[in-house]
Amino acid sequence: MTTVLAVANQKGGVAKTTTVASLAAALAGLGRKVLVVDLDPQGCLTFSLGHNPDRLESSVHEVLTGQSSIRDVVLDTEEGISLVPATIDLAGAEAVLLMRPGREFTLKRAIATLGDDFDVVLVDCPPSLGVLTLNGLTAADAVLVPLQCETLAHRGVGQLLRTVSEVQQITNPDLTLLGALPTLYDSRTTHSRDVLADVADRYGLPVLAPPIPRTVRFAEASASGATVLAGRTNKGAQAYRELAENLVAHWDEGRELRSFAACE
Ligand code: ADP
Ligand code: MG
């Protein structure tokens, strides 16, 4: 059984890509076979895992437009994670897909052709709620929403939750909303905590633990083409490891995910 997890938030800079790369490395570290799918035409996930999008012959664009099979575009990366890369061509896939019936199901159908090759597929959604994100949510068993702990973090959350609920009604009744993952968290002030309490209150959205602390190691890691788990141990890597362990216990044993409120 393959579990597909979409990481989505139409806001940019909330650590979607960082979460996909770091969580993938952590799950691979737990012995899972992990595939990540870059659905952002910017190709940041592709780049951060050591591949230059400008030099690639084929990518998720060819998969979504029916020119390649997903197996043919999968790349290996340093940390034992397999990658379906994105290039700027993906910006044009949206227009092609919009002309097609069943356009929301294209990624789901492609992932299904992989059979049991992977235990977990993580989908890095772009910062929009367009047809690419709809493909990610339609292909997914569950969605995780990284939320940067800053003022106005809640802007757009309502719209995202409405999209998730529409996907549940129309293209993917089995989609589970795991909750918000606090990112860029600063434990030294009460501000991050207040923001999270506000979002949880307003939307009844579960907030997961552990929060991912803000640390400079993430910027250093993505510039080096490796994830934050590859280098010296640090509190960012440790938080993603803990999240990976919680997810595995949730998927394998049905254990409840730890919530932020419960760990205060
Ligand atoms: P998104 O994919 O949502 O646009 P990214 O994952 O690209 O967001 O992250 C945006 C920026 O924030 C990147 O420069 C990344 O290195 C940085 N970043 C992400 N998580 C953290 C963190 N926990 N601490 C510090 N910087 C982070
Ligand atoms: Mg991104």
UniProtKB/TrEMBL annotation:
SUPFAM superfamilies xref list: P-loop containing nucleoside triphosphate hydrolases (SSF52540)
Highest taxon above the source species: Bacteria
Gene3D superfamilies in UniProt: P-loop containing nucleotide triphosphate hydrolases
Pfam family, one: AAA_31
Domain AAA per the UniProt entry, residue ranges: 3-176
Protein name (Swiss-Prot/TrEMBL): AAA family ATPase
Organism: Rhodococcus olei
